[in-house]
Q: What sequence folds into this?
């Protein structure tokens, strides 16, 4: 289990080293933070299993949507370029907030930028029951019903997982990934943990 954690961290660090020279127009601390987060997103895709109905064809790409301000720039695109998981490539698309969530529902992974914190509840409600891995980095994202929430602890990128939200999305998260995460429960509107 510890080796898997080291493998993920090592992979993210290798991505950071390989792409560090490509950060353009972004503060270097932000650049390295989102380089690591992009590496994590790729690794999450390897450690999450979607139902077969989540894809139109056996070779349909894994679509990563970025909702709101894109903190990754071209980094995420470079990390997943030419990569395949179970014969599926990747497609990265940027989407803007709209009450019509149709464009979001075409994603397999949806990163909700912290710029969209006022829309988190609408996005989470709109994605309920759909096989979409929701990832965010706004405080409390997983407790509000998102599946994975990035956090910073001691200047290191960590993540929380809402296992119940993943079950409701019919996503199977590898136990190897869960051993590295802080498990959180969704908090109901009245402030109590949901059952």
A:
């Amino acid at each position: 289990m510890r080796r898997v954690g080291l493998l993920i961290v090592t992979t993210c660090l290798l991505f950071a080293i390989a792409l560090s020279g490509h950060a353009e127009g972004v503060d270097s601390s932000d650049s390295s933070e989102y380089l690591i987060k992009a590496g994590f997103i790729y690794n999450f895709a390897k450690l999450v299993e979607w139902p077969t109905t989540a894809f139109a064809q056996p070779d349909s790409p894994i679509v990563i949507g970025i909702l709101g301000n894109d903190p990754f720039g071209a980094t995420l695109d470079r990390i997943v370029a030419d990569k395949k998981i179970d014969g599926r490539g990747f497609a990265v698309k940027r989407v803007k907030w709209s009450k019509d969530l149709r464009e979001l529902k075409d994603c397999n992974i949806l990163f909700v930028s912290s710029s969209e914190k006022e829309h988190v509840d609408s996005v989470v409600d709109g994605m309920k029951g759909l096989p979409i891995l929701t990832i965010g980095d706004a405080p409390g994202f997983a407790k509000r019903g998102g599946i994975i929430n990035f956090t910073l602890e001691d200047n290191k990128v960590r993540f929380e997982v809402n296992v119940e939200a993943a079950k409701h999305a019919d996503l199977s998260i590898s136990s190897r990934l869960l051993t590295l995460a802080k498990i959180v429960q969704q908090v109901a509107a009245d402030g109590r943990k949901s059952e």
Summary: DSSP finds six helices and nine strands in the chain.
